[in-house]
């Protein structure tokens, strides 16, 4: 069964140094209700025990709740995956991690060449990045990027990148950020997303003393290119008008792309979207799925056992039909019209 899996996204931690206003974790983290989980290296060796599970596959370290670079074993985890033939992709705000850790990752990039890739999510430059990436410091980001890039693989196929979400408040720093990225040998891409099109985020920045805290509203300067299609899907969902033609346009990360998602509490989901939905709507998810507790837990089952579960084997795809008793409209909203909802990244050249 593991042979059908081509990509594995792993949220190795629910911890993060930032407090981005659009992130699902920010409010519960502030309220003290967020459970902090790390998937230890020993756990990962149990979940992915040998080369069969990793060789030639893409392992993406990202997640819905945490930043992988805050994990205390990040470099050892990356080395374990690389040494077993995986292609590793790290997505991070770059504002956390020791200089020794970033040095080691740069050296691993050099050793394994383009099998290790970095996506630096930096939404601004010195003046503005902290407005959305609340609590990050550009001086630390710059230090970490310098340490990584001076040691990274410099081959022609290298694909490390700086991805920049465009807001009204950071649009004036695009050019300086682009030049900075290219000096470091990074590709530079601008990103839009539906969440930013739909929301004005309120960022609380500054000192923890409420008297000195600044509150800034961040607005999306660039609309999501496929916004009209997403709005059309919302309309169809609201009117119970999803038909077979719409269902046929779904591109599922699990069914079509051979991808699975492992959450920081060691549950296995088809994608980050459904884990995000579970995190925000746990009780309703349990009611709809109504499976025995632990059915998708990697503490209790292997990947193969979970892949053989009826939901993965058959029910998930059947449930895209709104009349199905295990239907989630999330699958339509996020993945219909050939993933119209997904973030668009456009590369910027010199």
Short synopsis of the structure:
With 350 residues, this protein is an alpha/beta fold. The protein has helices at residues 26-31, 41-47, 74-83, 99-112, 129-132, 138-151, 174-183, 194-198, 227-238, 244-247, 272-280, 282-289, 303-307, 310-318, 329-339, and strands at residues 7-10, 58-61, 87-92, 116-121, 161-165, 187-192, 201-205, 214-218, 259-262, 268-269, 344-347.
Topology order in helix (H) and strand (E) letters: EHHEHEHEHHEHEHEEHHEEHHHHHE
Radius of gyration: 20 Å
Main-sheet strand order equals: 10-9-1-2-3-4-5-6-11
Helicity level: 25-40%
Number of strands: 11
The DSSP helix count reads 15
- Relative strand content: 5-15%
CATH homologous superfamily title of the largest domain? Aldolase class I
Shape call: globular
Mean of residue pLDDT?
93
Q: What's the number of domains? A: 2
- What's the end-to-end separation, in Å? 45 Å
What does the model show?
There is one protein chain. Helix 7 links the parallel strand 5 and strand 6. By secondary structure, the protein is of the alpha/beta class. 37% of the residues lie in helices and 15% in strands. The strands form two sheets. Strands 10-9-1-2-3-4-5-6-11 form a nine-stranded mixed β-sheet. The mean pLDDT is 93. 39% of the residues are buried. The chain is built from 15 helices and eleven strands. The protein folds into two domains: 2-193 and 252-318 and 342-347, Aldolase class I (TIM Barrel, Alpha-Beta Barrel); 225-250 and 320-341, no CATH class. The radius of gyration is 20 Å and the shape is globular. The N and C termini lie far apart (45 Å).
């Amino acid at each position: 069964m593991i042979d059908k899996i081509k990509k594995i996204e792993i949220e190795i931690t629910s911890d993060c140094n930032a407090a981005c206003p659009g992130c699902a974790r920010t409010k519960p983290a502030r309220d003290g209700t967020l459970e902090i989980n790390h998937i230890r290296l020993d756990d990962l060796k149990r979940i992915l025990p040998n080369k069969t599970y990793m060789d030639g596959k893409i392992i993406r370290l990202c997640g819905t709740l945490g930043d992988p670079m805050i994990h205390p074993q990040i470099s050892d985890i990356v080395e374990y995956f690389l040494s077993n033939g995986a292609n590793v992709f790290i997505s991070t705000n770059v504002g956390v991690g020791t200089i020794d850790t970033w040095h080691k990752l740069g050296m691993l990039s050099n050793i394994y060449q383009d099998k290790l890739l970095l996506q630096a999510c930096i939404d601004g430059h010195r003046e503005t990045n902290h407005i959305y990436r609340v609590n990050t410091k550009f001086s630390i980001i710059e230090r970490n990027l310098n340490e990584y890039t001076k040691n990274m693989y410099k081959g022609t196929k290298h694909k490390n990148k700086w991805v920049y979400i465009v807001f009204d408040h950071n649009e004036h720093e695009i050019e300086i950020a682009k030049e900075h990225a290219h000096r470091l040998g990074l590709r530079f891409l601008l990103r839009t997303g539906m969440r930013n099109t739909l929301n004005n985020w309120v960022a609380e920045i500054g000192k923890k003393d409420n008297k000195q805290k600044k509150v800034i509203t961040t607005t999306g300067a660039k609309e999501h290119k496929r916004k009209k299609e997403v709005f059309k899907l919302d309309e169809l969902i609201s009117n119970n008008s999803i038909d077979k033609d719409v269902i046929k346009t779904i591109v599922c990360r699990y069914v079509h792309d051979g991808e699975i998602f492992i959450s920081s509490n060691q549950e296995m989901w088809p994608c980050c979207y459904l884990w995000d939905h579970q995190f925000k709507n746990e009780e309703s998810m349990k009611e709809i799925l109504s499976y025995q507790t632990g059915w998708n837990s990697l503490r209790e089952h292997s990947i193969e056992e979970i892949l053989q579960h009826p939901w993965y084997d058959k029910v998930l795809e059947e449930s895209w039909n709104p009349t199905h008793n295990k239907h989630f409209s999330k699958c339509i909203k996020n993945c219909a019209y050939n993933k119209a909802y997904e973030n668009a990244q456009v590369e910027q050249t010199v």
